[in-house]
Write a structure and sequence with these properties.
46% of the residues lie in helices and 23% in strands. By secondary structure, it is an alpha/beta fold. The strands form three sheets. The chain has a six-stranded mixed beta sheet with strand order 5-4-3-6-7-10, with helices on both faces. Strands 1-2 form a two-stranded antiparallel sheet. A two-stranded antiparallel ribbon has the order 8-9. Helix 5 runs parallel beside helix 6 and helix 6 runs parallel beside helix 8. The longest helix has 29 residues.
Length: 297
């Protein structure tokens, strides 16, 4: 049900992300994500400065005047948003919940795509595929997806990244752009092979979400920690320096395992946290991607 608060939130996200796209990201998106190639447009008369390699010798011989083939970038792309809606997305200790952050990131990339006349689709997953919206164009389509990201109530609670990626590999027949937006709170080895397979077929970018409390827990005495996805509760003594050190080491190992999986699969990882503005992280991603493209990497 669309309440007044929800309508206001959708409108706020639309205004914020559209302005951000128009001011900053539309051009970068176009440069970073290329079309499928060059499409023939027409044969026209040669003009000084034209690339002589494009001369159409058949037409030139027939008319007696030099003519060249004109091409344009075949721009239209398909973008698929693969968004994690597991219970851990309801966590957030700073500016917003991870689920809200995921919705804003999805909106930014959706409006950037639709501004460039690309099609956008959405797959919401937990430990199952919860919702699938086929790729389409247009502002109203993007707004529907943003609404679904904010109001959709998933049945599952866990995280099955492998299933989501396997579904994408079956669904998308042509090379596409796949944005995976998740906190990736699953064993990296559980989705390693699926990520490799998806990356070979598509251009995959991972938006890795987290919250400061997931990286470091302060000394606040004895507290109960609940696993959002399983409901399991564990009491811990955060005043113990040994416990905090063990916790930090475990987090560091987990983060490194994720980085290794993304790197070995040639997938760009954009780390976005609830306590920082995601704009800088997305801008840095575009900048680094453009630099690699310029270097031919």
């Amino acid at each position: 049900m669309l309440t007044n608060d929800l309508i206001a939130k959708i409108r706020r996200i639309e205004i914020t992300t559209r302005k951000l796209v128009n001011d900053s990201f539309a051009g970068e998106y176009h440069s970073v994500f290329k079309g499928r190639g060059m499409e023939f447009v027409e044969v026209r008369q040669y003009h000084p400065g034209d690339d002589v390699r494009t001369i159409d010798w058949n037409v030139t011989a027939r008319t007696g005047e030099p003519h060249v083939k004109s091409y344009a970038e075949e721009r239209e792309l398909t973008v698929m948003l693969v968004v994690d809606a597991s219970r851990s997305g309801e966590f957030g200790t700073r500016n917003r919940f991870k689920r809200e952050l995921a919705a804003e990131l999805a909106a930014v990339m959706s409006f950037a795509a639709t501004t460039n006349n690309d099609k956008v689709g959405l797959l919401i997953f937990t430990d199952r595929v919860e919702l699938l919206i086929p790729p389409r164009k247009g502002r109203s389509h993007v707004l529907r997806m943003v609404r679904d990201l904010l109001v959709f109530e998933p049945e599952g609670t866990g995280t099955d990244i492998r299933l989501a990626l396997d579904t994408i590999n079956v669904l998308l027949k042509r090379r596409s752009i796949v944005f995976v937006i998740s906190d990736f709170l699953a064993e990296p080895d559980s989705y390693r092979q699926a990520l490799f397979a998806t990356s070979r077929r598509h251009d995959v970018v991972a938006f890795d979400l987290d919250d400061p409390m997931e990286r470091e827990i302060a000394d606040v005495g004895i507290i109960a920690l609940e696993d959002a996805e399983t409901g399991q509760i564990r009491w811990v003594d955060t005043s113990s320096s040994a416990w905090r050190r063990t916790f930090s080491e475990k987090v560091a190992r987990f983060v490194e395992e994720k980085r290794e999986v993304f790197s070995s699969a040639a997938v760009d990882r954009v780390n976005v946290t609830t306590d920082r503005d995601y704009v800088a992280e997305v801008a840095s991603f575009f900048k680094n991607r453009l630099r690699r493209l310029a270097q031919g990497v």
